[in-house]
Specification:
single chain, mainly alpha, 0% strand
């Protein structure tokens, strides 16, 4: 660079281009900042909406569990009532079986008694 002279126009052109480049990069940076801010707002809105939906879903699940729990309690009581009724029916069935067995024995005894009486009458007729 010993004695080399640069024309003023060339220096001015480089300076203008550098300024233009700075202005262009600054404009891009500004647009990126605006877009990032909008993204954060929309993302925050989506997160809040998602949290609200999750809270509503959780409330629905809790209500469903309460309802299901109530139904389970009612069904448990119904099952207990059915068991008691079943036990009563089994006892009644046993009593009926015993009664039928006793009736069969009585009928058998009556038949035997009638056969003996019939044989006695037949024997008395032959003698008399």
């Amino acid at each position: 660079m010993n004695g080399m002279k640069l024309p003023l126009a060339l220096i001015m052109a480089i300076a203008v281009q550098a300024g233009g480049l700075l202005w262009y990069v600054s404009k891009i940076d500004s647009k990126v900042e605006v877009m990032y801010t909008q993204f954060e707002k929309s993302n925050q809105k989506a997160v809040i909406e998602n949290q609200v939906r999750m809270h509503i879903d959780l409330q629905n699940v809790v209500e469903g569990l309460v309802f299901t729990s109530t139904q389970i309690e009612q069904l448990t009581q119904m099952v207990e009532n059915v068991r008691k009724t079943n036990a009563q029916l089994i006892r009644q069935n046993e009593k009926i079986k015993n009664t039928i067995t006793n009736l069969k024995k009585q009928i058998t005894e009556l038949k035997k008694g009638n056969q003996k009486k019939k044989k006695k009458k037949d024997g008395d007729k032959e003698l008399g």
